[in-house]
Q: What sequence folds into this?
């Protein structure tokens, strides 16, 4: 009997807080108008993607006291956009990033249950946390949580939301709920009956040991970032290996890295286009901004085409606020210097090489082959595609790569179910009555 090719899962990311979009390209359109969201979502649905993914920021990032150049100012709130998209799509999953640090379980559980009903079972929640006081200033509670505390709060937050979703039986019978815990003490009656999926799909994005453990214990999908297939396989084996102690199987969690792609008629053409795109994404100005994020000091006097600074970073700096730190500044600086010296790279070239996502570059046939091989060798279960153009950046992939994946038997030729759980091959959660 011929073994069935492992199936690829695909999703589409609409960038917001990003260094992906090539804003200078005349084909780049609004990141605010609903028509852009609708166009990208419809393309993803035409390509039979599992879901459409929206990120979210709770405060505009600042650099030297000014709004960061790469932030989208005026971006609509994610769940509002997804609810509108439910009316212009039929099968595509709708995934929104919403913070568990500065929200409350009852309200968020109600909003996601509502989206799941309005979309007939296509809602997903990307659970994220925030640890910085800069973001906390936008909220009444203010302040911030220590790194360990934000994950314990997120775990209790998600468990509480699931208690609320389970307060209605599958037959439509409600019952009062009561939760007593370290972070939440609530009781009452949940006003929204059990949703079509039982629970909306839960996505988690985190690569730390705490994040990996949280994903293994509670998530349905993990959105990650790895630059090589080798790193992807290490992450895949590690996280999947944590599932058994929570009574879960490997199929209960899908691992989907965020990736980019560049297509060309020849491999050389695709590589040339990829180089042009990366140079457009990392302008001389943005190269210095990226450098200052690590060093924490004003480096505007440095030449982007010159060598990296020979001074050490300031780990206590508040030069950049509201942006996730790349890592330990001293360790990152040492790594960048070693790479720069080994390859003779300038500041801009170093930033280009160190800040890129994993990318699939080549002819449509080569990209289809590489995607299939990555999933076959357990570097991932699928991919969240981050196009460099919005909203038309997925068109070539859907038109040229998807048919080749289908010919290889690695991708669906039609949606087999109606809910996001069915697209992902996830079981409906057992009702805990």
A:
């Amino acid at each position: 009997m011929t073994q069935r090719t492992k199936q690829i899962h695909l999703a589409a990311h609409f960038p917001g807080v990003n260094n992906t979009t090539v804003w200078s390209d005349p084909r780049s359109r609004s990141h605010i108008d609903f028509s852009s969201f609708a166009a990208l979502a419809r393309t993803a649905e035409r390509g039979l993607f599992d879901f459409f993914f929206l990120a979210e920021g709770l405060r505009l990032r600042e650099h030297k006291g000014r709004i960061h150049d790469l932030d989208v100012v005026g971006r609509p709130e994610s769940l509002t956009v997804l609810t509108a998209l439910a009316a212009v799509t039929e099968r595509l999953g709708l995934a929104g990033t919403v913070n568990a640090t500065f929200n409350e379980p009852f309200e968020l559980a109600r909003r996601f249950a509502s989206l799941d009903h309005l979309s007939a079972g296509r809602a997903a929640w990307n659970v994220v946390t925030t640890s910085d006081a800069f973001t906390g200033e936008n909220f009444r509670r203010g302040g911030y949580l220590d790194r360990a505390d934000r994950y314990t709060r997120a775990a209790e937050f998600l468990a509480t939301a699931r208690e609320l979703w389970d307060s209605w039986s599958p037959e439509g019978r409600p019952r009062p709920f009561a939760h007593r815990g370290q972070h939440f003490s609530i009781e009452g009656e949940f006003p929204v009956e059990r949703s079509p999926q039982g629970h909306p799909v839960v996505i988690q994005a985190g690569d730390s040991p705490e994040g990996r453990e949280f994903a293994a214990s509670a998530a349905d999908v993990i959105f990650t970032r790895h630059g090589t297939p080798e790193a992807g396989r290490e992450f895949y084996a590690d996280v999947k290996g944590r599932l058994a102690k929570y009574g879960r199987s490997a199929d209960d969690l899908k691992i989907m890295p965020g990736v980019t792609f560049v297509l060309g008629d020849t491999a050389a053409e695709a590589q040339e286009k990829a180089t042009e795109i990366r140079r457009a994404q990392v302008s001389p100005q943005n190269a210095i901004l990226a450098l200052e994020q690590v060093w924490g000091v004003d480096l505007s006097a440095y030449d982007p085409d010159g060598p990296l600074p020979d001074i050490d970073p300031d780990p206590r700096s508040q030069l950049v606020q509201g942006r996730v730190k790349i890592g330990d500044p001293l360790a990152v600086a040492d790594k960048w210097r070693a790479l720069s010296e080994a390859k003779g790279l300038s500041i801009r070239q170093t930033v280009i090489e160190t800040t890129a996502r994993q990318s699939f570059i080549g002819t449509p046939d080569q990209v289809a082959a590489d995607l299939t091989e990555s999933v076959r060798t357990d570097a991932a279960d699928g991919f969240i595609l981050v196009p460099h153009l919005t909203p038309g950046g997925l068109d070539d992939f859907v038109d040229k790569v998807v048919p080749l994946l289908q010919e290889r038997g690695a991708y669906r030729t039609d949606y087999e179910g109606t809910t996001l759980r069915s697209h992902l091959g996830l079981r409906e959660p057992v009702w805990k009555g």
Summary: The longest strand covers residues 254-263. Residues 79 and 407 are 36 Å apart (CA to CA). Residues 283-354 form one domain. The chain has a mean pLDDT of 91.
